[in-house]
Each structure stands twice: as C-alpha cells, then as structure tokens.
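Hi W., the pyridoxal-5'-phosphate complex you wanted:
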Amino acid sequence: MRDKFLPFALPDTNEAEVSAVSEVIRSGWLTTGTQVRAFEAAFAKYVGARHAIAVNSCTAAMHLALEALGVKAGDKVITTPYTFAATAEVIRYMGAHPLFVDVRPDTLNIDIDQVSAVLKREHVAAIMPVHIAGEPCDVEALDKVAGGIPIIEDAAHALPTKLRGRNIGSLSRFTCFSFYATKTLSTGEGGMITTDDDAAADRCRIMSLHGISRDAWKRYTAEGSWAYEIIAPGYIYNVTDVAAALGLVQLGKLVSMWKRRVEIAGRFDTAFAARPELQIPARAAGNQHAWHLYMLRVDNERIRGGRDAFAEAMRKRNIGISVHFIPLHIHPYYRDTYGYKPEDFPVAHREYSREISLPIYSRMSDRDVDDVIAAVLETATDLAPP
Ligand SMILES: *Cc1c(COP(=O)(O)O)cnc(C)c1O
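Structure:
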C-alpha cells in the first residue's frame, strides 16, 4: 500500500508558468490587458470559434450567456440534475427555473429523447447540456430536437473534447469552459465563453466588466480615454493578466497533458474491464473524450457496503477519490423549492449511488497509476460478498 496520499487532482504547472506569471507581475499591468486578449485569441483559434471571452469562472460564463439571451424571470431552462451546483444556480440568478431532464444510463449525459418529450409540452428559453467527465453530449442531435431553442453548453469537463471530429466550443450558440484548479486547463479560477454570435459576444464582454461600453479595460492605457458609458448594471467577471498568462502556457501544452490522461484511462480500462463488480466509463465511438474525470461505477450488489464502503476503503489505501455528482434534485435547496423526490430522476439517482471517480491527471507517474489500479482491485476483492 502507498505510504503517501495520492491527491485526487493536481494542476500540471512548472517553471514555464512561473516565469510567465512573473513577467506579468514585473510588467506592472496586473488586471485585464494584453495577456487576456492574447489568451482569448489563442483559445478561439484552438476550438474554432469566432469569439472567446475570458471570464473568472465557468459559472460567470454561463450566467453571461443566459443574460445575453435575455432569459427572464419565470422562464424555464432545461438542464440535467447530474451536474455541479453551477449549471442550475445560474438559471436561478435570472429568476428562471431549471427544468431537470434525466440522464442516459450509459454516458450520464442528458437523455435527448426525454428532452424532446419535454419540449412537446413545455415552453423553454434555453437548453444547458453538460459534457460529463469529458464525454461529449451529442449536441448536434440535441440541436435537431431543440428546433431553434438556443443551447448553452456546460463544457467545464470538455477540453479538449470532440464530437465526431468537431471541437466542443465550436458547435452551439454558447459554450462555457472552466479553468478551475482541478480542470484540464487550469488558471486557479477562470472560464471562457465561446460563440460565433457577434452581438452576443459584445453583450457578454460588456456585462463582464460593469456594463461599461466598449473596451472599458483600455481606459488606463495610452490609447484609452477617461470617458465611458454605462449601458446596463453589469458584473465584475473579468480576468487578470496574471491568470491569462498562466492560461496561455497551459493552452500550449493542453494536448500533451490530454495524451497522458488518455494513456491512464486506457490502463484503467484494461485493468477493470473484466471485473463483473466494476463498470468502466461508457463512450460513443468516433468521439474524443477529454478524460477530465474517470468515473468508475461499482455494482452495489457485489460490493459489501456498496460505493460508500468502496470510497472509504480507497481513502484508507491513501488514494484520493471523489464522487461526481450528488444529483442537484436531492440537495435541500432544489428538493425543497421544487418538491423533488430522489426517484423523480431515477437514472441520475441510481448511477450517483454507485459512482466513484479515480485520480486521472498528467502529473501522475506510472507508479501512481499502478497504485490506483492495485487499490481498486484489492478493495473489490476485500469487499466481495461471502
Ligand atoms: C467545475 C464545474 C463548473 C464550474 O466551474 P467554475 O469555473 O468553478 O465556475 C460548472 N459545471 C461543471 C459540470 C463543473 O464540473
């Protein structure tokens, strides 16, 4: 057994990030400036979008996208309960209501047939799918059933993800990425909106910085002017040049970091595929999985104490694990506000009860991967029913 705890996630940063950040600090320009513009341009080019707007979180990105669409109080927005707090809370920021639709049992992405059924009886302002773990939701199929209803993708897990060869970030009205500390590209905190819609991009940019008209950030540069106009009560969702410098270095090594996660996922698959008490992550052929998460599922009938005991045993073996996600409809706020019962979204509830996420990040050594595999297999054996 490992004597040293293996963290669940670690950012892949080294001297290149340190020197890029140091340079920004030495420059004397710390907040939004040329580094942010360079990061946005490089990101837009990478995913193949007309516009990329850097913001300080994916949550801010999704909020701005809903705001740009003009979602109003009382509107309904479809999303999945199998996600993090952020995806639904931004809907509530607008005074709108999340309309949860259950997930597919295989990929845990939103069930598009059920979305289609809901759209036959409800008027919906937007649809917010999540690419869970980095496996793409089929947003092209979703777009067909949406019939013009705008899609805002929660792509917090989906960099670099491809749907049938096309980059996530280039497909829907808005795509929102996260650069939180545990994500596949990290600036500590951060996010990005991508869109091809010029007017919406403008609105997001303006609202990300106090609702001040065009290029507010330039007012302290040589070419800027002290004069500005406030066109709406905006937010302070902009990004610092310090974070953007970190992001630029991270973007440059995104593919090499991803390749290492692909290798690790392959080793996990090989080690676990034949064990009847374990289920490896499902994925559709022809897509590219980002492998932000490796979501293993255990058969609660074949593990004494089920997933909870499994998770506890992994911790005791010094392996950092996590569970993704406690479905939103069983949290007190959504349960009490909307009167949900766990069985209202039976697939989300059942799959959550047997999910355990294993460490998967580029800084893991082969030895670390061996240790995770050994801990999983030994735990499964130890907890086998008599
Ligand atoms: C991490 C995460 C977010 C939020 O990202 P922030 O950048 O922290 O706002 C949103 N959705 C999902 C599915 C996430 O995992």
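The longest strand covers residues 51-55.

W.
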